[in-house]
Amino acid sequence: MQVVRTRAELRAVLAAAPRPVGLVPTMGWLHAGHVSLVERARADSATVVMSIFVNPRQFGEAADFEQYPRNEGRDLERAEAAGVDIVFAPTVAEVYPPGFDTVVSVGAISWPLEGAARPGHFDGVATVVAILFALVGAERAYFGLKDYQQVRVIRRMALDLALPTTVVPCETVREPDGLALSSRNARLTPAGRAAAPVLRRALLAGSAAIAGGERSGDAVRAAMRGMLETEPAAEPDYVSVADPDTLAELETIDREALLSLAVRIDGVRLIDNEMTRA
Ligand code: AMP
Question: What are the structural domains of the chain?
């Protein structure tokens, strides 16, 4: 496995790399969710590139960026064990050199849910992913459906800007108790970690209501909120039952619905989602 830190080094190693190339963008603190993306990329690609970069432009609060967990030594071991060929681990100044003055801003699909809760977040994501797509020129890039809206935003960007990289969505990997793996889970206290599976239980309460014949969006959102209320440590940010195509809130559930939520536990903001069919 080669580790490169500059745009120029990355270009040089990629010039000699066998194709197709698969890209797995990450912010590090690697877990089994990231490894599952690498495994998908490995199956499709002759060369697997992973980026490890905590992108300041996608964080609203400086404190959230600073507290994001980091351990490059451990990440490099895990990346190599997972089968990564090239790690791109740049500095902030390498990604955003002096004079950098471009923002990639995707429209309506980025506005609700995470976009409404975290102003500027998706501009930061789209900008860094556009740079990574341009630098790596991968045939495919792999993203987790835990961040469903992110997948939709990046797909929209790649399509609109005619970027030659196909976005491949990958299933969410969970702990045995249902908690979606996330680097942020590392910041939970033991009590917070014990409380965190309530996100999954709330999603399942919503999908059970739909499976039981409930067709009112408000009633399903109430079922999800009711489950969150059983856990005093959980502070809901949003609870959503939305059209998976537009992400607009559904009044009536008469087709597929994306159930999603963002919840703070111990001050750590966790998200999860579940697709259901009426
Ligand atoms: P992050 O390092 O959190 O920015 O995540 C990097 C990539 O891994 C993104 O495409 C995420 O959607 C994906 N990812 C994060 N958590 C999981 C998970 N539990 N299962 C599958 N993919 C995930």
Answer: 2-170 (3.40.50.620), 183-273 (3.30.1300.10)
